[in-house]
Design goal:
Elements: H1 3-19, H2 40-64
GO biological process, one term: endoplasmic reticulum unfolded protein response
Transmembrane segments: 41-63
Subcellular location: Endoplasmic reticulum membrane
Length: 69
């Protein structure tokens, strides 16, 4: 059997097994994680760069009294 056919058979068997368990079947069979898509170090670095660039632009704007753009 091909891989896709085996996967289809496995999902079908799981579905058929769950039919007899009316009401006691979990809402989803896929585990939901609370993981963030990026790690805390990457997120911290991104926030550091964004806030740092804003502070730098404000500093340059008020020190030189001219527009940066």
């Amino acid at each position: 059997q091909t891989t896709s056919r085996r996967l289809a058979d496995r999902k079908s068997a799981k579905f058929q097994k769950n039919i007899t368990k009316r009401g006691s079947v979990p809402e989803t069979t896929v585990k939901k994680g609370n993981d963030y898509p990026v790690g805390p170090i990457v997120l911290g670095f991104f926030i550091f760069v964004v806030i740092g660039s804003c502070i730098l632009m404000l500093h340059l704007f008020f020190v030189h009294k001219s527009t940066i753009f």
